[in-house]
Structure formats: structure tokens, C-alpha cells
Amino acid sequence: MSAKARVKEYMTRDVATVDADDTVDDVARRIAESDHNGFPVTDGREVEGFVSARDLLLADEDAPIFTVMVEDIVVAHPEMDVIDAARVILRSGIQKLPVVDDAGNLTGIISNTDVVRSQIERATPEKVGELMETLQHIHDVDVHEERRRVRLDDLVPTQDRVYADELEGRRYELEHGLAEPLVIIANATGEKELLLLTDGHHRALAADRLGIEEMDAYVIVVAAEDPVTLGMENTARNEGLSSIDDVAVVDYARHPLIETTKRLQ
């Protein structure tokens, strides 16, 4: 049975909020100066309502927010299935769900973009388990899984390029505390353990550009008593890949999933 993705894994935890006594003019200025189109209204961490740019239209600029905010709002719980949150977002026609705990305190916010992201790139336990089974089947070796912090400088990439558009997406996630763990294969073929980056190249490069030195990772450890040269090691060697600095960044227009009108004509 596959593990379900929970809202708490994809929500933004650092949430911008406003007070009920703030004025319409105050909040309108904050919206104009940011990339937000609305804010949860809170008293401390308790959610009292939500105010959007639409709620401010035609309102007196000196009016307090509690007079224009929506009080009966739809919220999500941190343990809620992301797919269920997607259904709520779709059926309600809203773009963001405040996430509240059992006490009604704000713990985060999840958007339709977060929901899409949860289905595109996930370092799930199932993905790790499938990779472990593949290694065992192909190379007849013993493996086990560890959760570690790994230094980006120690990683050997196994793909030679990433795409600029996706790199920007991963950068945004990192800046908002949304990074997925990397997936690493640790193979002790000599005195030094070789750390092969198998999933998360975009995340690793985005982190490196932000000056992040370490990341959380699922590490699949190949038993030291079963030394073996993995196929992806040969691939990295043949492509001249020894560090993430060797990975090329390709413009988004060349991404294999992207079509342009010029290419379609």
C-alpha cells in the first residue's frame, strides 16, 4: 500500500498574515508590494478569517479588515491527504487553503501550486524501496536505507543536465522551506564511500546556488562486504561527472515536456 502525501509535507509554514484591526489601505498596500493576493486574518496564531484582494474592492480605505474579511472559511488539516485538499481547492474555486491544527491555530497554507508540485516530484518511500529492490535484483547485493544529512560537495551526479524552469521551481521551494529529501546511493567501492545522486538533481543545484551546503537525504547503502561497480557509476564517469558543478543548465524552451507554437507549426 502506498503512503499518502499529507498536507503538512507540502504546505508553506512561514505564512504572512494580517490583523483584524488592520485597515483596508494597509492590506491593499501589502498585496500590491508582494506576490500575495490575500492573507489569513489571525489573532495570535488563531485564524479568524481570510481577506483577498477582491474583498477590498470598493471598500473604504480606512475600514478595518474585520468588516470586509470572510469569516466562514474553508481550511485544511496538516494530516489531510493532499489529494483531498486538491478536491477542496477545485470544488471551492479558491487558490489557497489555510492549514490549521486541532486547536484552530494556523500552521501553514497550501496552494493549488503546492498540490500540483506534490504530484510531479516526490522522493517517496515507495520510490526508495523500488530502487533498493532494483539494486538487489541486478547486482545481487545487500542494501539498507538510512536518513542522513549529506554535503552537496560530496555528491556525484548521475545526469548531465537540468532544466532552467524546473530549477527556478526548486529554488522557490527551498526558499519557502519545501524541499524534498534527495535520494542517494552510497557505494563503498574503495576507502571512500561514493555518494551517487540518483534523484533530486534540480533540488541539489538550486540549493547550491542558494549557498546551502547540506541537505536531507534518503541514503541507500550498499553493503561494504559486497563491493560492486554500479552502472550509474560508469555513466557518471563516461559523462565526466564528478560533482554537481559538472551538471549543465538547459534553457526551459528545450525541455522535452515543453511545446512552443513555433515547434508545433
Task: Tell me what the structure shows.
- The radius of gyration is 23 Å and the shape is elongated.
- The protein has helices at residues 7-10, 24-32, 53-56, 82-92, 112-120, 125-139, 164-175, 201-209, 231-238, 261-264, and strands at 38-43, 46-52, 96-100, 106-111, 143-151, 155-157, 161-163, 182-187, 194-199, 214-222, 248-250.
- The protein has two domains: 7-119, CBS-domain (Roll), CATH 3.10.580; 121-254, Alpha-Beta Complex (Conserved hypothetical protein from pyrococcus furiosus pfu- 392566-001, ParB domain).
- It is built from ten helices and eleven strands.
- The model is unreliable at 257-265 (pLDDT under 50).
- It is α/β, with parallel strands linked by helices and 265 residues long.
- It starts with 6 loop residues before the first helix and ends with a helix.
- The relative contact order is 0.13.
- Strands 5-10-8-9-6 form a five-stranded mixed beta sheet. It has a two-stranded antiparallel ribbon with strand order 1-2.
- Helix 7 (164-175) crosses helix 8.
